[in-house]
Amino acid sequence: MNPRTWIIEADIASMQAEMTRGSLTSVQLVQLYLERIGRHDNVINAVLELNPDALGIAAQLDQERLVTGPRGSLHGIPLLIKDNIDTADKLHTSAGSIALADSLASADADLISHLRAAGAVILGKANMTEWANFMAPGMWAGYSSRGGLVLNPYGPGELFVGGSSSGSAAAVAANLAAAAVGTETSGSIIGPASQNSVVGIKPTAGLVSMAGIIPGISSQDTAGPLARSVADAALLLGAMAGPAASRSADRDIGLIPEDYTAFLDPQGLQGKRIGIPATVYQDLHPDVLAIMNDAIAVMADNGAVIIDPVELPCLAADWSPVMLQYEFKRGLNRYLAKLAGHLPVHSLSELIQYNLQHSDKALKYGQGTLEWLEYSGEEITEAQYRKELQLSRASAREQGIDYALSKYQLDAVMFPGFHGTDIAARAGYPLITVPAGYAADGSITPGGYTTKGPHGVTFCSTAFSEPALICIAYSFEQAAQRRYPPRLFT
Question: Which of the residues are catalytic?
Answer without folding.
Answer: 82, 164, 188
